[in-house]
Amino acid sequence: MDIGVPKETKDQEFRVGLSPSSVRVLKESGHNIFVETQAGEGAGFTDDDYRNSGAEIVPTPEAAWNRELVVKVKEPLATEYKFLQKEQVLFTYLHLAAHRDLTEHLINSGVCAIAYETVEQPGTNRLPLLTPMSVIAGRLAVQFGARFLERQQGGRGVLLGGVPGVKPGRVVVLGGGVVGTEAAKIAVGMGASVQILDVNVERLSYLETLFGSRVELLYSNSAHIEAAVREADLLIGAVLVPGRKAPILVSRELVKQMQPGSVIADVAVDQGGCIETVHPTSHTKPVYVEEGVLHYGVPNMPGAVPWTATQALNNSTLPYVVQLANQGMEALKNNPALAKGVNVQNHRLVHPAVQEVFPDLV
């Protein structure tokens, strides 16, 4: 099979769909890989690295896109819609619930669009291709939050870990899934005072075995959210409803009650965000001030650490890429987890969660 790897076009997105080691595995399986020139440079992979692994370096995006299978990291942008082709397979993160325009173009193109974030192992609720980036995003949320709490960055001037005689900063995490758990690990490691709120009591019990008394664990209801958010120095949105738009848990009125110079980092922004005042930003301009609070809304946070993120992503995606390359569309019949990743196929929106968001497109 001919496999294309275009260079990512999202603002300061330096990850790449396939690493040189993944290319080598696919080449050894008899496939042809076409990598756009400099696609891996930002992640530390040169064109020669890809050539030495068996790839052909192509000079234009079109030459990479014009293949049976296209492997990317982020969703196609408007400038890339023209490359979408009937019966082509696109394998990447899509987050269609937050992108109606993209959804419509995918339907019209006839492409088979498989989203990393909805590949789901049956009966487990595990999202194996979302997890590695969720781990990274959760850890980065605290790292970035700590930076923007610095006074020179516009924040309150709070050191999350505090010092003897001065109380530590307070980190509030909405959601105790992978993102929330990883954020809490970093915040605890920095010495912050940490609260996690979640609606799943079993998950809260698990988090107690993980953190013990180092983290305050609260059932997520409006009263607990309001009390926690008002006192937060750093508020992290870590809510995930697979395939669907994230629910709004924090209203504008509640954001107004936060301390001036506090920081919000909404990791759920790629699914619409769980905080009313958050909208997508970029690595070039990551924050803005709303109601006196700094808002960080970069939807591709792991793009900040592309060397780590590309390899972590490939560790999870490669077995599925190999199966698609070896078996074509039969892979969807043979692998139920991969079949659940299909969002658009044969000019139809097929994923149930995205159908709920855009019922008029069904």
From TrEMBL:
Positions bound to NAD(+): 134, 198, 203, 220, 239-240, 267-270, 298-301
Reactions that this protein is recorded to catalyse: L-alanine + NAD(+) + H2O = pyruvate + NH4(+) + NADH + H(+)
Keywords, sorted A to Z: NAD, Nucleotide-binding, Oxidoreductase
Pathway: Amino-acid degradation; L-alanine degradation via dehydrogenase pathway; NH(3) and pyruvate from L-alanine: step 1/1
GO cellular component, one term: plasma membrane
EC number(s) stated in the UniProt entry for this protein: 1.4.1.1
Enzyme class: oxidoreductase
Molecular function GO labels: alanine dehydrogenase activity; nucleotide binding
Keyword Mitochondrion in record: no
GO BP terms in the entry: L-alanine catabolic process
Active site: 95 (proton donor/acceptor), 270 (proton donor/acceptor)
Domain Alanine dehydrogenase/pyridine nucleotide transhydrogenase NAD(H)-binding: 149-297
Residue ranges occupied by any Alanine dehydrogenase/pyridine nucleotide transhydrogenase N-terminal domain in the UniProt entry: 4-137
Residues the record lists as binding substrate: 15, 74
Protein family (similarity comment): Belongs to the AlaDH/PNT family.
Protein name (Swiss-Prot/TrEMBL): Alanine dehydrogenase
Organism: Fischerella thermalis JSC-11
Lineage: Bacteria, Bacillati, Cyanobacteriota, Cyanophyceae, Nostocales
